[in-house]
Automatic annotation (TrEMBL):
Superkingdom of the source species: Bacteria
Protein name: T9SS type A sorting domain-containing protein
Entry-linked InterPro entries: Secre_tail
Organism: Hymenobacter canadensis
């Protein structure tokens, strides 16, 4: 077993650089820690291990526009199936401005939902939220590993420590369906891993509901450390990879996690079967505020909507969060009021977050004070899940326009594309008998406007 005092092994697995979308672009390394302290949500775009930079697949386009070289990857937070009960001093860790109050507690306080904060953000990779001082075991579901990925040198597991590591010595292990260790366990002591960045955080007391925020835990500077490894570090081989069903962390009580991520090209886990269908998204901008409304046609395992805004239509920041219904077969109405006096065009979008940590971004609204603008493109899928045919209904789009439909895997690999002429109208039939069963993202583009929804092939 890899011991925590094995300095060589720790150094090999030490993440030495991270890139996130805080403030549009944030880059920090162990050799040159960025003096900026993120204080809100920000998603991990890339990380460097053993001299190689790997993207997470969250925003490769942004990395490219910055002229950065990287190995394209696809990473996502593992879904939480079980976690220890919070005890006194178990905290929910949030960027100091996450709750809308830069120096103090909000009213009402953020939701007490540790599993949510371990998988929020794009692909669940939000470094600005998490938990601290967690005890017991953290189990994360996984349905299978790819045997050919063992020993290829590409990181497969990525874990985080976002506060003071203290005596944190966590144990990581893969388990089979009977709860038995597959391969070997790995112990990691985060106090032997270099600081890759610093941030400013509030630590709400999670053993109380509603949570409380004490003075000594308000707007405090903290460190970030990340550790990553190939499957082979756990004794996983081509022979035993097929028996893995979960990933377990035995938590020391000083464990401070933002997320535990996995390589989507290496592992698969079972996602909830149905999507959240956004049927309308509208807004009205006034001199001192913007009022946004949206509607869902159905929801399954929905967690929340993050409201994001931008001044240029390209770089977005989160300004609010609205809890979702979780499960609903009826139409649901939502609204959010954003106080702002921004002149000119205001851009808004929604980040719809599922309970498994996956997320989907809505089309962008461009609003000008005094004018009401709605998002005209609305797409629904039926049946969903589907068999050999998928029928898409396109409503509200400008008549007489060609339509492009693209299906990709959750890892971003395109599996289908078809251009429909204007004569196809608003009812599009996709022949998908040869498509393997699974969950896909359907991207529908009409007259330059794109909407995305999840669909499931039975």
């Amino acid at each position: 077993m890899l011991q925590a005092n094995d300095a060589t092994a720790q150094a090999v697995n030490n993440v030495t650089e991270i890139i996130t979308d805080f403030g549009g672009f944030f880059q920090s390394a162990t050799t040159a820690v960025n003096p900026t302290l993120p204080d809100n949500s920000h998603d991990l775009l890339a990380f460097t291990l053993n001299g190689t930079r790997y993207s997470t697949g969250v925003d490769d386009a942004l990395l490219a526009t910055r002229g950065l070289t990287f190995v394209a990857g696809q990473y996502a937070a593992l879904p939480v199936s079980a976690i220890g009960t919070p005890v006194t001093n178990t905290k929910v860790a949030l960027g100091a401005s996450f709750d809308g109050v830069p120096n103090g507690a909000s009213n009402p306080v953020p939701a007490n939902n540790i599993p949510f904060y371990l998988r929020d953000g794009r692909n669940g990779l939000n470094l600005g939220t998490g938990t601290a001082n967690v005890t017991g075991t953290l189990d994360l579901s996984i349905s299978g590993l790819t045997a050919t990925a063992v020993g290829d040198g590409i990181p497969d597991i990525l874990v985080t420590q976002i506060a003071d590591p203290s005596n944190s010595q966590d144990r990581y292990q893969f388990l089979d369906a009977n709860g038995q260790v597959v391969g070997r366990a790995v112990d990691v002591a985060f106090n032997s891993i270099g600081v890759v960045a610093n941030w400013t955080a509030d630590f709400y007391e999670a053993s109380q509901s509603p949570m409380t925020l004490a003075a000594g835990f308000t707007r405090t500077p903290r460190t970030m450390r990340l550790w990553s490894a190939d499957l082979s570090a756990f004794g996983i081989t081509a022979a035993n990879a097929g028996s893995v069903r979960s990933f377990r962390i035995a938590l020391s009580g000083s464990s401070d996690l933002a997320f535990v991520a996995y390589n989507r090209q290496t592992a698969d886990f079972v996602n909830p079967p149905l999507p959240v269908v956004l049927s309308a998204f509208e807004g009205e901008a006034a001199a001192t505020e913007t009022f946004l409304t949206w509607q869902t046609a159905q929801e399954v395992n929905s967690a929340a909507f993050e409201v994001q805004t931008s001044t240029d239509g390209r770089t977005f920041r989160t300004v609010g969060r609205v809890q979702a219904a979780g499960a609903s077969s009826q139409r649901r109405q939502y609204s959010y009021q954003h106080p702002t006096t921004q002149a000119g065009v205001r851009y808004y979008r929604l980040l719809q977050i599922d309970q498994d940590g996956t997320s989907t971004t809505s089309p962008v609204l461009a609003l000008t004070a005094g004018r009401k603008t709605g998002q005209p493109l609305q797409v629904t899928a039926a049946p969903n899940p589907f068999g050999s045919q998928l029928v898409l209904t396109v409503a509200g789009a400008e008549a007489g326009q060609p339509t492009t439909v693209e299906l990709t895997t959750l890892a971003g690999r395109r599996v289908y594309q078809q251009d429909f002429p204007a004569s196809a109208g608003q009812l599009l039939t996709l022949e998908l008998a040869q498509l393997p069963a699974g969950m896909y993202l359907a991207r529908v583009t009409v007259a330059g406007q794109t909407t995305v929804l999840k669909v499931v092939k039975q």
